[in-house]
Amino acid sequence: MFIKVLNQKGKEVGETELPKEIFEVPMNPDLVHQVVLVQAANRRRKIAKTKDRSEVRGGGKKPWRQKGTGRARHGSIRSPIWRGGGVTFGPTGREVFKKRIPKKMRRKALFMVLSAKAKENLIFVLDNLKIEKPKTKIMVEILEQLFLKKSSGLLVLPKIDENIIKSVRNIPKIDPIQAKDLNVLDLLNYKYIVMPKEAIEVIKETFL
Predict the structure, then answer these.
(1) What is the span of the domain harbouring residue 60?
(2) Which stretches does UniProt call biased (Basic and acidic residues) (predicted)?
(3) Residues 195 and 119 in one domain
(4) What is the pLDDT of residues 55-109, one digit of tens each?
């Protein structure tokens, strides 16, 4: 598959061939869905925590005597059936959400998503992507030449470029990522992909 190569002003300056092993893989939605679930689970943070009856403060004294009051018997006001008591079967903060999936399946799903993006013309390949100093305004102008300002985009960099990273961090819906760290979840979270030609070689060397 051949794709147009653009300069930073959005003008066509040539074309390049995308590796068919990566950018011409037929889609399997079930596999992509499975990989997305695994990656989302692995990124999940354990932020929910409730206290059971042993962790709630107070309740050491029996609220009333066992017999003779006409009321139901209770041993602690921190019982789960009391207001302010412990929580039964609540999140403890010790849950394990991590999941595993074979490396070949992850790579296959990645190629499927890249192929779908290429087929829908959502990938922009640049001959070069460099700016002399961190400047958000310059990066905004470059992106406006490529796609709509309000659309989301993922900048795939062949290596860490501090000038570009600092220039995009204040632009909403735009994020950078190294080509070697590409994954299905990040690709699906953004509509467009912008990458220099060098990034294609890094993807090829990393995943093939």
Answers:
(1) 48-96
(2) 49-58
(3) yes
(4) 999 888 999 999 999 999 999 999 999 999 999 999 999 999 999 999 999 999 9
